[in-house]
Specification:
The complex is a heterodimer of chains A (about 375) and B (about 400). Chain A is built from 12 helices and 9 strands. With about 375 residues, chain A is an alpha+beta fold. In chain A, the strands form 3 sheets. Chain A has a 4-stranded antiparallel beta sheet, with no helix packed on it. In chain A, a hairpin with a 2-residue loop joins strand 4 and strand 5. In chain A, helix 4 packs across helix 7, helix 7 packs parallel to helix 9 and helix 7 packs antiparallel against helix 11. By secondary structure, chain B is α+β, with helices and mostly antiparallel strands. The longest helix of chain B has 25 residues. The chains are: A alpha+beta (about 375), B alpha+beta (about 400). At the A-B interface, helix 7, strand 9, helix 8, helix 9 and helix 12 of A face helix 7, helix 8, helix 9 and helix 11 of B.
């Protein structure tokens, strides 16, 4: 089933958000800041985080009743695209994904309990999106939630958790007696071991979280449970990440384009050679198509609560491939310089490798899309 | 799979769409009983031509063609710009294409933009009704991608008109056309671009010889046109002397779908879509199983589905300027390139899927879909070469959209 959006609701509020974000990030997140934060142990700028909270970004899509701005997915996609363009090192993505999970799976009480602190930027949160075994299928949850008289005991391992060592709240799925359920867990709970990972992407911080009989109260279990709820969260998260990746692809294209204009060989700018020009045009076309998909996937969530998976899957699949190609050209067309750590291209390159693997790559999503297209569960049985 | 009914459309649009759909259902012509060309480039026989011309006239008389053109020139004067809805529904129904494509998509829009009042009143209505067929005289043997180097001359005649001498190629419908949009050199001393003028040339003039060209599929439809001191009147000029290049570029902008305002209609029927190849895969055996179960073929087809969807959703995005603010021209200028290459990849994939059976050509009783797929693949080059090759399109995008330096 196709993405059913029939139009884009783009208004002044979208325009203001995007232009404001672009100006703010130009000023606060120039490439010098990315370089500095890449080597910083914390990995982000708390001052910038505070300003982002004041701009209303931390609570962008959180309901006004819970202290957010109550804006839509298209707003979120536009903002993430701007952040991606600048490779903003930030706990932002993890925090908004955790808020998304709470908003989708939590009841009113649970939302009222957790979301205001996330909306205000007062707390950092993250999503335990993956486990060892590296499956993005929503039923691939081995971590266990065992019922106790006063709540649950959680055991298992979550990998590549964004800002896992910085977040104060972790939302993650565990397998309970009645199936998969999501839990909101305080990061300082007894029995929760946080092991920072050596992440390939210097603009990200990730950790491995080991739950060893972590005791949580019954209320930590979010009200709406099931693999379908978790699957819907993973898909919407993939749509959001796709928007951020489109921004990153745009960033590397600009960088490479500028270099192709300025760099001369054989007495001519290298961008005048069709061997350079045409691949850059192909990247631009791919980015525009990926942007169309990312915007359409986001818009679908604004027009219906559970749109067909097609939109998010196409967005993430295409963004993954387009960004991977754009960074490959980025290194190649910067020549020998592009191969060194002094050239900023490597930040985009590593971001691309990181993002492609998260929340399902093109191979993963296209396999699911094929089942939809051919009207079967999996024709390759 | 493709082109689901549009949801959440305004009421009046949704109703209009239903009306169009019902009209097509009730009025589409019966299957012709002879092989039909796959698009307007390949109309060959009288029966093909008559069938298509009758269809266009019928659609026009029903009020579904030229909807967006002004009423005083035979159009519908529709303020809601609903021609695109008709086009979508025609495509969805697999209705026959409109044979006067050059008139509807190029000549008509460019006359609307550059024509005198008299030219508009004279030419536009017979374009819509298919009463007068148009052809295009741009390319020459020595001027393909480098279009501005055309050598065909239009020299002043004593009566104030012009005398044309030269050679044009790839002239679709050249034997059927009453008029040609003609790019010719009026000032050989001027700069390459400044010496060109644009004409509405009467094909019935003496000194015009139309010779067929046969394509790799064996089909005709293309021609070359030799002008031997062929006269045309003074009012044949569209725009001003020396404005030819500008007018020709405007025409190609319509051709690339970059501008609104074409007379409407699709230029192809039996449009190759991912859905059609899915259906083909379900009934095509491969290594003892349906091709639809082959993981590699599935993945390649899904990649094209993602492109097809990006094109469809991109048309929606194109109507939202705020979502194109950074590159206002990109979606419009890349449309022809992406669409033509998508169609080529799709028909090529279908040929590969058919394996040994792709060896059977039109007319063989065992040929899958009567050889449509290899024929579509060969014909797809008409789209990736005509109207500016894919390579030229990439130069244009690189220079005009990305701002890269010109290739020497």
């Amino acid at each position: 089933m196709n993405n059913p959006v029939s139009h884009f609701d783009f208004g002044d509020d979208h325009e203001i958000l995007r232009e404001g974000a672009r100006r703010f990030l130009e000023e606060r997140c120039p490439i010098e800041a990315v370089r500095r934060l890449a080597d910083d142990p914390l990995g982000y700028d708390p001052g910038v985080w505070k300003e982002m909270a004041e701009l209303g970004w931390t609570g962008l899509t959180i309901a006004e009743a819970h202290g957010g701005a109550g804006l839509g997915n298209l707003h979120q996609a536009l903002l993430l695209e701007e952040m991606g363009r600048r490779l903003l090192p930030s706990p932002y993505l993890g925090t908004v994904l955790a808020a998304l999970a709470i908003a989708r799976a939590g009841d009113e009480t649970q939302q009222a309990h957790t979301l205001p602190a996330l909306a205000s930027g007062g707390a950092l949160a993250t999503l335990g999106w993956l486990e060892p075994g590296a499956s993005w299928e929503p039923d691939a949850v081995a971590a266990r939630a065992e019922a106790r008289t006063d709540g649950f005991a959680l055991s298992g391992t979550k990998t590549h958790v964004l800002c896992g060592a910085q977040a104060q709240l972790v939302v993650a799925p565990f397998r309970a007696d009645d199936g998969i359920a999501l839990f909101a867990v305080e990061a300082n709970a007894d029995g929760l071991r946080v092991e920072p990972e050596t992440c390939l992407d210097p603009t990200r911080r990730t950790a491995r979280l080991v739950f060893d009989g972590v005791r949580v109260p019954a209320g930590a279990r979010l009200a709406r449970a099931g693999a379908d709820v978790w699957g819907a969260i993973l898909l919407q998260a993939a749509a959001w990440l796709a928007a951020e990746m489109v921004g990153a692809a745009e960033g590397i294209l600009q960088l490479t384009r500028d270099y192709a204009v300025e760099r001369k060989q054989f007495g001519r700018p290298i961008g005048s050679f069709q061997a350079v020009k045409h691949p850059l045009v192909n990247d631009m076309i791919g980015i525009e198509m990926a942007r169309t998909h990312a915007l359409a996937a986001a818009a679908a969530y604004d027009q219906m609560p559970d749109p067909p998976a097609t939109g998010a899957r196409m967005a993430k699949a295409l963004a993954s491939d387009v960004l991977a190609t754009a960074v490959r050209h980025g290194v190649q067309f910067h020549g020998g310089y592009g191969f060194t750590i002094d050239c900023d291209v490597h930040y985009y390159f590593k971001r691309a490798l990181f993002c492609r693997g998260m929340l399902g790559d093109g191979i993963h999503h296209r396999r699911h899309l094929a089942a939809t297209l051919f009207g079967d569960a999996d024709g390759t049985a | 799979m493709s082109a689901q009914p549009e949801q959440a459309e305004p009421q009046e649009i949704a109703e209009f769409r239903r009306d169009v759909r019902a009209w097509i259902q009730a009025n589409r012509p019966p299957e012709p009983g002879f092989v039909m060309p796959q698009n307007f480039l390949f109309v060959e026989t009288d029966e093909q031509f008559d069938y298509l011309r009758d269809w266009q006239r019928k659609v026009y008389e029903a009020g579904y063609l030229g909807l967006d053109w002004p009423t005083e020139y035979g159009g519908g004067g529709d303020v809601h710009k609903r021609q695109r809805i008709v086009t979508q529904e025609m495509n969805r129904a697999g209705a026959p294409f409109f044979v006067n494509t050059i008139g509807l998509q190029w000549a008509g829009p460019v006359i609307l933009e550059y024509g005198t009042e008299a030219q508009k009143r004279r030419f536009l209505k017979p374009i819509l009704s298919a009463e007068e067929i148009w052809c295009q005289g741009f390319s020459e043997p020595g001027a393909g991608s480098d279009l501005a180097s055309v050598q065909t001359r239009a020299e002043p005649a004593p009566d104030g008109g012009f005398i044309v001498t030269g050679h044009k190629v790839w002239t679709t419908l050249g034997t059927r056309a009453k008029w040609m949009i003609l790019l010719a050199r009026t000032d050989p001393e001027a700069h390459k671009y400044a010496g060109l003028s644009f004409f509405l040339f009467p094909m019935e003039s003496p000194g015009v010889e139309v010779l067929p060209l046969i394509k790799m599929t064996g089909e005709g439809g293309f021609n070359q046109v030799i002008f031997s001191e062929a006269p045309m009147p003074a009012d044949a000029m569209l725009g001003k002397p020396g404005q030819g290049w500008e007018v020709a570029m405007a025409t190609l902008t319509f051709e690339r779908g970059a501008a609104e305002g074409t007379g409407g209609g699709q230029a192809t029927s039996s449009a190759e879509t991912v859905r059609r190849v899915v259906e083909l895969a379900a009934r095509t055996p491969r290594d003892g199983r349906p091709a639809a179960t082959d993981a590699i073929l599935r993945d390649r087809l899904v990649q094209l589905w993602i492109e097809e969807e990006a094109l469809r959703l991109g048309a929606l995005r194109k109507r939202t300027p705020g979502l194109n603010a950074d590159r206002p021209l990109a979606l419009a200028l890349m449309n022809k390139l992406v669409y033509s290459e998508y169609g080529q990849k799709l028909s090529e994939l279908a040929c590969e899927m058919l394996g040994p059976e792709t060896a059977l050509w039109m007319g063989d009783p065992n040929a899958p879909d009567d050889g449509d797929w290899p024929r579509a693949y060969m014909n797809s080059f008409g789209m990736t070469i005509g109207g500016g090759t894919s390579e030229i399109q990439r130069n244009i995008l690189g220079e005009r959209v990305l701002g890269l330096p010109k290739s020497k």
